[in-house]
Amino acid sequence: MLLPVNWLKKYVDIDMPIKELSDGLSNSGSHVESIAIRSEGIEKIVVGKILDINKHPNADKLVLCSVDIGDKEPLELVTGAPNVEAGQYVMVAVLGAKLKGDFEIKATDFRGIESKGMLCSLAELGYSQSVIPRKYRDGIFVFQDEQIPGEDALKLLDLYEPIIEFEITPNRPDCLSIIGMARETAGTFSKELKIPKIEIENEVDDIKDYMKSIKIETENCNRYYSRVLKDVVVKESPLWLQNALMAAGVRPVSNIVDLTNYVMLEFGNPLHAFDLDFLKNQTIGVRQAKDGEIIKTLDEVDRKLTKDDMIITDGENPIGIAGIMGGFNSEINDDTKTVVLEGANFDQKCIRLSSKRLGLRTEASARFEKGLDPNLPQLAVDRVCQLAEEIGAATVVKGSIDIYKNPPKRKVIELRPERANALLGTDLSVEQMLKYLNGLEIKSGFDGTTILAEIPSFRNDLNIEVDLIEEIGRLYGFDNLVPTPIRGDVTVGEKPKFKDVEAIVKPIMSGLGFNEIMTYSFISPSTFDKLCVPEDSKLRDVVKILNPLGQEYSIMRTTMIGNLLDVLSRNRNRNIPSMLAYEIGNTFSLDKDEDDLPTERLKMIIGFYDHDKDFYYLKESLEILFERLGITDYDFVTNEENSTFHPGRCADILINGDYVGAIGEIHPDIRKNYDIKDRVYAAEIDFQTMVELYTSKRVYKPLPKYPAMKRDFAFVMDRDLEMRHIKEIAIREAKDLFESFEVFDIYTGSQIDDDKKSVAFSISFRSHDRTLVDEEVNRLMENIIESIEENLDAELRK
């Protein structure tokens, strides 16, 4: 952002050295990049009037100019500039003059004729080609109005006034304007801000006679404000206007276009001017472009648009890319007589993405993409009308068309003075705080306990109390803050319980052969399809990321099975023969916590592919883990409804009767989705429940003094009967004498019915106070056999 100091002085009375000004603004948060004084290295450039022009006798491309520079005798100069004419007021470098690059003017012989000076172009005074008006790029600069010969040309061009370049942060689009920086200056130096009063003296006709309507057909346009200028006279802008634009880094074009650019720099809201004669049906439309739609922009480039681009139309065809650049077919030209002025407020994201995709970054897009005050369009358009009337460029038509969808709501922030002083380490009075805030046009008052600050619409970066404290701090001067010791309560830090449990679990899993993995918490929506999760499953109620890295990372995971399968697939496809992995991480759901935020819950995923291991290895690993954590009341219950696992090879995991997860073999269709040919076994468990139930208490029992008695059984039973039911009967019947239960054979085949299976198991009995005898154990066996046959419809094999 370039800030010409003489332009700044129109709104703030400042009379101080440039270093004091720049240092003060830097200290208040406006970072100064550089200071340029364009007159440095340039001397003795005066105004001259060309009295006469004659051909050079010895050169076809040179002419002899007699120039009045206010001396008694005219100065005789030789020039090759193509645009010299008698009667022009030009810039003359006299003998001894210095130009940029330590170039000194001396008397020079041009084909036998001595030239005692030089006619100057803007480039020779150090102007960048990007800001020089096109008509003067290849020739000398000509003053349009009558000037006094011999007058200091540098003064006329405002080259003695410094220009400060600022680095404006993205959260302060209001500072991308002269008035915005004037507001900062006024607040920093306790000066009065003088914003131009907009008054139009003469309005004629009615806008309804010129414009029928403005149609907004997109959600990306919040406001569109328009007025009409008639009897337009397109010509070169007055010198003060050209000086202001070139100093701010903008090339003058013509008076109407220059006024829109001048006001854009002044107020910070981009504007555009359309030639009304090119608008069909006297209508302007704002809509999203159609895929493949083409527009030729002002830079004479045909640009192919997509549905994500927003355009301005004449009711049918594009006449501009909204917020970026106007169309070539509706630009202001020398024949323009009636102009439609556009002041709009567009969605910042839409403009930013279009500008990036098209590779077209302009002064307008640089402002819109940061988010602008929706109240600015009316001020800016009316200001153009005022200036157009003042310089005689047009007559203002009465009335306006204003479509304003969502005006900003009044926003008030409460500020506690004691809180501000506590954070800043200061002892500022309420009066000082109010002075700082009101100096930035943040209307503030004190109700006896709290400062109530009404946030202006141009400060969308102020949302909470600490934002206001920062404003007070930067105007007070962060360099004035006295370093103070950190204050706070001393506490003893300790790890949360889940970290302690993690530290126990990890070596256990490592001892069982599992490797720890770490994966992203954000996943692709397609993960649920790959896992065959039903459409109505709660797992699909996901937290969506507002600014994802891409579609593959656009939602927060509700299950970790997809992450595990991604890792197993990657390893299997790299010919790793066996992979056992586990991870402890968060999953996320839309259920709200006490802070009204999405819920995070720790889960543990365990899984593997290995030719030597099966479901029972995974189940045994979990049992060992539960035992080490002191969790005893757990169970595995068959579940054939889980679509992620193989039917009949899946079980729910219950602890204290509550569901905490699932274990099983991954469904073949899902393995195919992840390109895994080997069988995969996995278990997902609620780790938070494990943490809550973990106990470090252990009860040690003495080694048994008396021998155990073991009995083997073999039953034919229904194929889908779970072994836990037999174990429950054994425990119930044997009571304190029960020691262990172990299945050692399961048979299905031709020797028994298809819907049956033969199961062989052993039960161990032991007493802690005596040696058991056969009669006692035999009675227990008979009770167990009878109970199994009656309750489970099983038959003892003999």
What's the arrangement of secondary structure elements?
Layout lengths: L1 E3 H4 L9 H10 L3 E6 L6 E13 L7 E6 L6 E5 L9 E11 L3 E2 L3 E3 L2 E3 L1 E3 L22 E2 L9 H4 L6 E5 L10 H12 L13 E2 L8 E4 L4 E10 L8 H9 L7 H13 L3 E5 L7 E6 L5 E3 L5 E3 L5 E4 L4 E4 L3 E2 L12 E8 L1 H11 L4 H6 L7 H15 L4 E3 L3 E4 L6 E5 L1 H8 L5 H10 L3 E4 L4 E5 L9 H12 L20 H15 L3 E2 L5 E2 L2 H5 L24 E2 L4 H12 L6 E14 L5 E12 L5 H14 L5 E5 L6 E11 L2 E9 L1 H6 L7 E6 H7 L15 E10 L4 H12 L3 E10 L8 E10 L8 H19 L2 E2 L2
Parallel strand pairs: 13-24, 14-17, 29-32
Antiparallel strand pairs: 1-12, 2-12, 3-4, 3-6, 4-5, 6-7, 6-10, 6-11, 8-9, 15-23, 15-24, 15-25, 16-23, 17-20, 18-19, 20-21, 21-22, 26-28, 27-28, 30-31, 32-33, 33-37, 34-35, 35-36, 36-37, 38-40, 38-41, 39-40
Helix pairs in contact: 4-11, 5-6, 6-9, 10-12, 19-20
Task: Give an account of the 3D structure.
- With 798 residues, the protein is an alpha+beta fold.
- Helices cover 26% and strands 29% of the residues.
- The chain has 20 helices and 41 strands.
- Strands 3, 4, 5, 6, 7, 10 and 11 form a 7-stranded antiparallel sheet that branches. The chain has a 7-stranded mixed sheet with strand order 29-32-33-37-36-35-34.
- A hairpin with a 6-residue loop joins strand 4 and strand 5.
- Helix 4 packs antiparallel against helix 11, helix 6 packs across helix 9 (376-390) and helix 19 (723-734) packs across helix 20.
- The longest helix is centred in the C-terminal third of the chain and has 19 residues, at 774-792.
- The chain is elongated.
- 36% of the residues are buried.
- The mean pLDDT is 93.
